[in-house]
Amino acid sequence: xxxxxxxxxxxxxxxxxxxxxxxxxxxxxxxxxxxxxxxxxxxxxxxxxxxxxxxxxxxxxxxxxxxxxxxxxxxxxxxxxxxxxxxxxxxxxxxxxxxxxxxxxxxxxxxxxxxxxxxxxxxxxxxxxxxxxxxxxxxxxxxxxxxxxxxxx
Length: 153
Description:
Blueprint: E1 16-23, H1 40-55, H2 59-64, E2 67-68, E3 71-78, E4 87-95, E5 101-110, E6 115-124, E7 126-127, H3 138-148
Antiparallel strand pairs: 1-4, 2-7, 3-6, 4-5, 5-6
């Protein structure tokens, strides 16, 4: 069992999840034929983009509301290597937060469902001038209300 990076908050709705299927490309491996460690943030991004598209909180959705969501923090743990041309999945999990931020957890699994890599990112919300947003923007409030009501599962 994998311990989540973000403990559940009391009264919080269940996390939102998405899984993305991938295959290791030749360009992603090092001379030892294992995926270079610096490729994993890109794998995390694949899941983050898919989750955003599925639930209406993608980068373009934020852009329409004049908000950006840069990564403030990233953490990665490597458990097993992937090699060319392994098939694998990346699960992106968005955890509830009362703060104005996005807490994403990621689990990379090989074709045998073994955990290969885990990690997380924290994204803050900024306005167009680059200032941290401390009060939840209306569009993000609406998203969280739908999530809290169970309308996004």
